Amino acid sequence: MAETLNFELVSPERKLASTEAEAVTIPGMLGDLTAMHNHAPFLTNLRPGYVVVRNGTSEEGYFVTGGFAEISNNAVSVLAEEAVERSAVNRAFIEEKIARSEQTLADAAPARKQAALQKLNDYKALLGQVPG
Amino acid sequence: MPNLKDLKNRISSVKSTRKITSAMKMVAAAKLRRAQEAAEAARPYAERMDAVLANLARAARGSQTAPRLLRGTGAEQVHLLVVATAERGLCGGFNSSIVRLAKRAADKLIGAGKTVKILTVGKKGREQMRRDYAQYFIGHVDHGGIRRIGYADANAVAEDILARFDSGEFDVATLFYSEFRSVMSQIPTEQRLIPAAVDDDDDDASGTVINYEYEPDEDEILADLLPQNLAVQIFRGLLENGASEQGARMSAMDSATRNAGDMIDRLTIQYNRSRQAAITNELIEIISGAEALQG
């Protein structure tokens, strides 16, 4: 049997998933990363993107808007600001997020402009990848 | 003594009041269950957040580069009181006890020569605070149209507070809400929001400090996490408040229903007595009339 780690996805409102997984891919702020058994303790914040959980041949995906992920003791906890199942993501969903981040960017204090701009660009990049 | 018709009317009006209060109790019970579930569901996130933040804060403690949200502005002159209450009344002492706690804190701060600013969340708190503290008001967040408090609502409040903090409007922020213990007991609580109240004792129960690798780096993650933590704290406060409100309303409506029942019993006895007295009176009149004819 392949070695697994414990995966948990929680948003402020509820717990979305809690399973065993062989590999978990996380959209880290500086790039995607995949955690497997015995990954070193790791903490990163997230950019908007997909969290993919693999178990053998089966695969489950979630979309997160941000937050952070913690890897320690063979457990991956993703604390998402907002998370939905991958199937719920479509063009309209992303477009709404883009509109909202543009608003945030416009309102943001100078110190937060950079982060807001990055988020907006992340969403724009995602727009090309989603089915209509 | 009131006449029979009046008594009858009063009994029926108290009966319909009882019907309303018992219906409100049922509704509050159902809402309470939902509010409790929501509060429960939010717990894992908040606990994780606390753990990670404590870990980071331990590392950043004492450092001059620590974000201002953690270390504060260095002054304690201007205090922001965030008073979270319900949008509706008829829930016993729920709103007043939060407001009382907030007023006591405000008086103490004013007495110590500090500047106080007040931000209210929830209509009832605004109404009650405005009587004495209108000049300190800087804002109000209306949650009147919202049926279920979502994270986005809490986040909006947090962003409002953050924007004010960034523009230097205050040094210390405190949240007032009511913690839910049980249906019978809700405890008005004050919690410091800024600078973040983080449990960064070295000797905590878990003991093992994990050496994480950080990406991008500790400071950046911390700077990103603290605003989120603020939103989470407010979200938790609002959810606790939601459960407390329904709990308080449930017990208030329960005792109102019971009072109405007692009142109906009392009025019914009075009604029966008056009715008997009226019958006796009539009998006496008939008998004495008959006797007068005989004599």
Concise summary:
The complex is a heterodimer of chains A (132) and B (295). Helix content of chain A is 24%, strand content 45%. With 132 residues, chain A is of the alpha+beta class.
Describe this structure in words.
The complex is a heterodimer of chains A (132) and B (295). The model of chain A has no long low-confidence stretch (mean pLDDT 87). Chain A is built from two helices and ten strands. Chain A has helices at residues 91-107, 113-127; strands at residues 5-10, 15-21, 23-28, 31-36, 42-46, 49-55, 58-64, 67-72, 75-80, 83-85. In chain A, α1 runs antiparallel to α2 (113-127). Chain A is of the alpha+beta class and 132 residues long. Chain B has 295 residues and is α/β, with parallel strands linked by helices. Chain B has two domains: 4-22 and 254-289, no CATH class; 34-253, Pyruvate Kinase, Chain: A, domain 1, CATH 3.40.1380. Helices cover 62% and strands 14% of the residues of chain B. Chain B has seven helices and six strands; from the N terminus they run αααβαβαβαβββα. Chain B has helices at 4-41, 43-60, 68-71, 94-111, 123-133, 151-166, 218-294, and strands spanning 78-84, 115-121, 137-141, 172-180, 186-194, 213-215. In chain B, strands 3-2-1-4-5 form a five-stranded mixed β-sheet, sandwiched between helices. The two termini of chain B are 34 Å apart. At the A-B interface, β5 and β8 of A face α2, α6, β6 and α7 of B. β5 of chain A pairs parallel with β6 (213-215) of chain B, so a sheet runs across the interface.
